[in-house]
Design brief:
Rossmann fold, alpha/beta, 8 strands
């Protein structure tokens, strides 16, 4: 089992294919398996690296709440890439993983050839309601176990498109959720999701970012639409894709379209033709 020790925890990873490194960071509800449609496609031309964040077995599952923060997840990724001998990579993520990818690019732009930021920004708008809901979910997870999270996902408007369009894919996703650690998920909610800076709070840093960036969101992912537009306006080399009739997890809801857009983006970046006229 490929595991490396980084930043005080063991991180499980998968390393597939050969070529320039392409790294994917998973969402709160997923794990490394969420990127399987991208691994199969892009490992034909890239060295594709996926991994499980701390808190997601078989990576370490720290029991202490203070072991979970945005900064620690970013540092985990930095040290993972160093351990694997990667000094420069395309770095992408979805939702919580998109926040990790974005903040990795802000903190270590010299290591990011490009950024792919998908379904990013939950909690940026309607902040009070978001905080209240996340705290309630965390308490339910500790009280009732992982089925509380499954019930929540089944009622979320941002997840409905996936559930309705692709029942087989949805059931596979829910099966993976059931394997997650409920206490770790509660710690992630409180320590990462609620304490990270909102997209609006990152404005000054976004304006300074010079890494080519692809921002992507589904038009049914209401909490992420305004933050995605904000990133498009403030990151100098950012382009925006809005996928119709699609929710929070674009890469598994519409994998063919997602892979097409990402493939075109990577080609443009590598040929020096991504938004060269905007700088």
């Amino acid at each position: 089992m490929p595991i490396v020790r980084v930043n005080g925890v063991d991180i499980y990873y998968e390393d597939t294919g050969r070529g320039f490194p392409l790294v994917w960071s998973h969402e709160f509800g997923g794990d490394h398996r969420s990127w399987e449609p991208q691994v199969r496609q892009f490992s034909r031309r890239y060295r594709v690296i996926t991994y499980n964040h701390r808190g997601y077995p078989p990576s370490s599952v720290p029991k202490e709440p203070e072991a979970y923060s945005q900064e620690q997840l970013v540092e985990d990724l930095r040290q993972l890439l160093r351990q694997l001998g990667v000094r420069l990579a395309h770095v992408g993520g979805c939702s919580m993983g998109a926040n990790v990818a974005l903040n990795f690019g802000l903190a270590h732009p010299e290591m990011a050839k490009s950024l792919i930021v998908v379904g990013c920004g939950s909690g940026t708008t309607d902040r009070e309601q978001f905080v209240k809901a996340q705290l309630a979910r965390a308490e339910e997870l500790e009280r009732e176990g992982i089925e509380a999270l499954v019930r929540n996902f089944q009622t979320l408007a941002t997840r409905r498109a996936f559930r309705e369009k692709d029942r087989r894919g949805w059931e596979e996703f829910i099966g993976y959720v059931r394997e997650h650690d409920a206490v770790a998920c509660a710690h992630l909610m409180r320590g990462v999701i609620l304490k990270r800076k909102t997209i609006f709070e990152l404005e000054a840093k976004l304006r300074e970012l010079r890494v080519p960036t692809l921002v992507m969101t589904g038009d049914q992912d209401e909490p992420c639409i305004e933050p995605s537009l904000f990133m498009r306006r403030h990151i100098p080399h950012a382009g925006l894709v809005v996928v119709p009739m699609t929710g929070h997890t674009v890469n598994i809801e519409e994998p063919a379209l997602f892979n097409l857009e990402v493939g075109d983006f990577l080609t443009a970046v590598e040929s020096g033709r991504w938004g060269t006229w905007t700088a």
